[in-house]
Amino acid sequence: MPCTPKLFVFAAAIGGAVFTPNTAMELARSITTPESLWQLTLHHGLLDPALQTSFLPLALAEELLLRSPLTAVLHLPPKGGDDAALSLCGAPGIHAEGRRLLVRRFADPGLGAGLLSWRGRVIGHYAPERPPSPLCPGYL
């Protein structure tokens, strides 16, 4: 999959965060949502390591998360990004390896109440309905 100009703009928005935050924000706002699984994966590959550090200003990180739905699913979607992230989780064309990635990532211990709440919403939204368990009568 060749790199597209959109991918370079996405990378420039991440890289510009430290020295030119206003320009980085403008770049981030100009990016459209990825159109293919390759683009989703590439956006995530660029943004995920940046989120593991603390150099991205919060507003820019949220703007970039809106442009990288896969990263939003695996981290915590910003305000207004829940629906897009939930729809990505349940996309019928999602590959089995993608589902395994989601399960592995969600099995990691949470880093806070917000992340645990998000993971619970995703699991609750897509978990198959089942009768209450005798051990936990109020379950589902």
What is the topological layout?
Blueprint: H1 5-15, H2 21-30, H3 37-52, H4 58-66, H5 69-74, H6 82-89, H7 96-107, H8 113-126
Helix pairs in contact: 1-2, 1-3, 2-4
Number of helices: 8
Helical/strand content category: mainly alpha
Q: What profile does the largest beta sheet have?
A: none
Beta strands, count: 0
Choose one word for the global shape. globular
Q: End-to-end span in angstroms?
A: 42 Å
Q: Share of helix among residues?
A: 55-70%
Oligomer status: single chain
**Strand and helix order:** HHHHHHHH
Cα-atom radius of gyration: 17 Å
Strand portion, in percent? under 5%
Poorly predicted spans: 136-140
Whole-number tally of structural domains: 1
Could you tell me the mean pLDDT? 79
Name some characteristics of this structure.
8 helices; disordered C terminus; mainly alpha
Describe this structure in words.
With 140 residues, the protein is an all-alpha fold. It has one domain (5-126). The chain contains eight helices and no strands. The chain has helices spanning 5-15, 21-30, 37-52, 58-66, 69-74, 82-89, 96-107, 113-126.
Put the structure in a nutshell.
The protein is mostly helical and 140 residues long. The chain has helices spanning 5-15, 21-30, 37-52, 58-66, 69-74, 82-89, 96-107, 113-126.
